[in-house]
Amino acid sequence: MDGGRTAHSAFKLPLNLNFVETPLCNISKQSDMAKVLRDCKLIIWDECTMAHKTGLEALDRTLQDICGVKYRMGGITVLLSGDFRQILPVVPRGTRADEVKACLKSSVLWPRITVLSLKLNMRVHLYANENAAAFSKLLLQIGDGQLPEQDNKIVIPPEHCRLIFDFNIFLDTIYPDLDKPNIVVPSWLKKRAILTPKNDSALEINNELLKRMVPGETIYSSVDTVVEEEDAVNYPTEFLNTLNPPGLPSHELR
Known about the structure:
Its cofactor is Mg(2+). The mean pLDDT is 89. It contains 10 helices and 4 strands, in the order ααβαβααααααβαβ. The strands form 2 sheets. The protein has a two-stranded parallel ribbon with strand order 1-2. The protein has a two-stranded antiparallel sheet with strand order 3-4. By secondary structure, the chain is mainly α. The protein folds into 3 domains: 7-112; 120-161, no CATH class; 220-253, no CATH class. The two termini are 27 Å apart. Helix 3 (53-67) links the parallel strand 1 (42-46) and strand 2 (77-81). The protein is 34% helix and 6% strand.
């Protein structure tokens, strides 16, 4: 969405939503952001189904406080868009029950939400592409659990995919000729992408692609230090460099 921002950035949501019972956004009533929110007629929260329910509840409390009213969301219309067939909120080391408990449908706000379902895929409808229509139908079947599975795996029909078993051939197929100068331009990059469910896989793929690019890669290293001097013995810099906590960049950026 052009000009859009993440919910954490726009609403100053706390980072510990998983552990706080009644969180609030870090927005004071006298701040410029509070004035912007008071003037809002509509707030659009896209992909809300991936957000932790306490994030929406924090926004509700904050808007009531900022606007000085006890109406839901401070009387501001909030449009939530998303698909529960996709990824639910990520709960570190949580069970399926924890993820379901964290999703919006488990929020005290959910009974107050009016649900409107979109029935027509406009992208498929406008382009009138039979292959795109068939693939869209396949995705809905996967999301609705209508396709047979074995060992938690679903076989995608061959007409919708191409199987490649060699890592290098796979990369060359998606990003060919990276070693040629002036090939990597925005118009070329935006036509291709590699999706992976794990950050480790994404890092491996990115590092390999960067090695192939012209000019060569540049490595920037973080500066890691301990807050308390007495901890320096137990946590040397070399150890800190090996840590890769979620939500923070790696020690080396390429």
